[in-house]
């Protein structure tokens, strides 16, 4: 059910070095970095994982609405991502990124983001190409 999770850190470079070191014994390594140029924001992100699949993320920057936990839920297809987003907005969530392709992660990454009532960034994502 959980595709990946992430959280903000106060010192990105320090945390990048820390998690690179402490996750290695668990078989996790740095799989991907997302730069400010890739997202059009001032935030940096690093995704750790196994077998080229990042599922543990740290990030810097963002505003107060993005400083909570980030949890991404695996969706079976794009229609489910759309339905998640519509249901969340109807239930009172705030938009944090409507359904769409996020090619800076990979060409088939289709996700939608909402801020829940407690300020957490909740995402539904499908990795399927259709």
Short note summarizing the structure:
With 130 residues, the chain is of the alpha+beta class. Helix content is 22%, strand content 39%.
Walkthrough of the structure:
The protein is an alpha+beta fold and 130 residues long. The protein has 2 domains: 1-62, 2,3-Dihydroxybiphenyl 1,2-Dioxygenase, domain 1 (Roll); 65-130, Roll (2,3-Dihydroxybiphenyl 1,2-Dioxygenase, domain 1). Helices cover 22% and strands 39% of the residues. The protein has 3 helices and 8 strands; from the N terminus they run E-H-E-H-E-E-E-H-E-E-E. It has helices at residues 12-23, 36-39, 78-90, and strands at residues 2-8, 29-34, 45-50, 53-59, 70-74, 94-101, 110-115, 121-126. The chain has an 8-stranded mixed sheet with strand order 2-3-4-1-5-8-7-6. A hairpin with an 8-residue loop joins strand 6 and strand 7. The longest helix has 13 residues, at 78-90. The mean pLDDT is 89.
Task: Give me some keywords for this one.
single chain, 130 residues, alpha+beta, 2,3-Dihydroxybiphenyl 1,2-Dioxygenase, domain 1, 2 domains, eight-stranded mixed beta sheet, 22% helix, 39% strand
